[in-house]
Design goal:
The chain is α/β, with parallel strands linked by helices and 187 residues long. It has one domain: Rossmann fold (3-Layer(aba) Sandwich), CATH 3.40.50. Helix content is 21%, strand content 26%. It is built from five helices and seven strands. Strand 6 and strand 7 form a beta hairpin. It is globular and about 50 Å long. The termini are far apart. The structure holds S-adenosylmethionine (SAM).
Length: 187
């Protein structure tokens, strides 16, 4: 007999779920299992790695950005400025966009010299303009539904990374762009 106060299930999980155990690393892609997991999505494709850190992704054509000038990235811009620059000089759209910002204000201050993930919502709003139809956005953080339905995306995979001990897990979502503009359908 269903109870009145039972939780309602709004959406059945139709995406893949993956669970990985990997010790925490300040620079996410230095952890080999996480790096391999991301790279399998990027093979042979054009990738924008927006908060790229020190590790370059291999097997893909990577455009990397990090505010920290010590890292050998293509751009050293605030992520929003980088997206705006790419929008105004778009030669081709990206097949994959990887977003691995500082997960909280405290982490920005403690781990990344105060470099903050500024204006995050604005970045997400602009991403469809520089992503191919059916392109994927891979986002790391404490939230699972990032681009979300309202921006025309559907979740394809959730990766939960368990770091052990008292560390928070990391949630990674893979979201596919399913809504395209009329202009994109015609061309
Ligand atoms: C969680 S780390 C991830 C780095 C990278 N994905 C890796 O695996 O090493 C976050 C990175 O974002 C950079 N960052 C912080 N604020 C930024 C901003 N507003 N724009 C661009 N990069 C920023 C930091 O310098 C740091 O390298």
């Amino acid at each position: 007999m269903p109870r009145d106060d039972a939780l309602e299930v709004f959406e059945a999980a139709t995406f893949k779920f993956t669970y990985l155990a990997q010790p925490l690393n300040r620079y996410t892609f230095k952890a080999p299992k996480v790096r391999a997991w991301v790279e399998q999505y990027c093979k042979g494709l054009v990738v924008l790695n927006l908060f790229a850190g020190p590790t370059r992704l291999s097997g893909c054509i990577e455009y990397s950005n990090d505010l920290d000038p010590n890292f050998a990235t293509t751009f050293h811009l605030d992520a929003l400025d980088c997206v705006n620059l790419l929008r105004s000089n778009l030669e081709r759209k990206f097949d994959r966009i990887v977003i691995d910002p500082p997960y909280s204000y405290r982490k920005s201050m403690e781990l990344y010299h105060g470099n903050k993930n500024s204006r995050f919502k604005k970045i997400l709003d602009l991403i469809p303009e520089i992503l191919t139809p059916k392109g994927l956005v891979i986002t790391f953080g404490y939230h699972s539904n990032v681009m979300s339905k309202k921006r025309g995306f559907a979740i394809r995979e959730i990766l939960l990374i368990s770091h052990g001990g008292a560390q928070h897990d990391t949630i990674v979502s893979v979201e596919e762009r399913i809504k395209v503009t009329e202009k994109e359908i015609i061309t």
